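Tokens as discussed.
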């Protein structure tokens, strides 16, 4: 919950927590350990085949703003995907995403997007699932959104779990 006056998160009352608790899906947001793995733009990361992609100068457009003149939280995903490699976008589909909102972004802000992609795939075979960590931050360095996205290879056209339909049902 957010305190309207300070615009900071505040402790959720126990009665509210008890009421909405059953609706949580059992997954936590990005943990501090995951958050520490997100490299800042221009830094180098030791380890397995880490690649970084940066897109700067993502000035918000009027249509991206909400009634409070802040960038709509859904628009952040588009900004995040600006730094994702085109090969991932063309050959993979988004399987899951976890977003951790850190700071508001106003109409005068100029964010930059950083994607860090490791060479490790889900089961060790190239072309399988890919995991990317994303950071959307202001050019001043303040973090706006941290994200973790998992991508799976696109299925061949016509492939899937639709099954075969009998001719009489067509």
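Sequence:
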């Amino acid at each position: 919950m957010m305190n309207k006056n300070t615009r900071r998160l505040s402790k959720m009352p126990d009665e509210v927590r008890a009421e909405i608790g059953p609706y949580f899906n059992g997954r936590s947001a990005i943990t501090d350990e995951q958050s520490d793995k997100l490299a800042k733009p221009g830094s180098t990361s030791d380890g397995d085949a880490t690649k970084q992609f940066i897109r700067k100068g993502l000035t918000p457009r009027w249509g991206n703003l909400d009634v409070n003149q802040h960038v709509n939280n859904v628009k952040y995903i588009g900004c995040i995907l600006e730094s994702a490699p085109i090969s991932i976008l063309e050959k993979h589909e988004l399987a899951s995403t976890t977003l951790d909102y850190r700071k508001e972004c106003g109409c005068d802000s100029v964010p930059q997007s950083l994607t860090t992609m490791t060479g490790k795939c889900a089961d060790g075979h190239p072309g399988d699932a890919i995991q990317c960590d994303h950071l959307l931050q202001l050019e001043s360095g303040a973090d706006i959104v941290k994200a973790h996205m998992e991508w799976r290879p696109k299925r061949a056209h016509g492939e899937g779990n639709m099954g075969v339909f009998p001719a009489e049902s067509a």
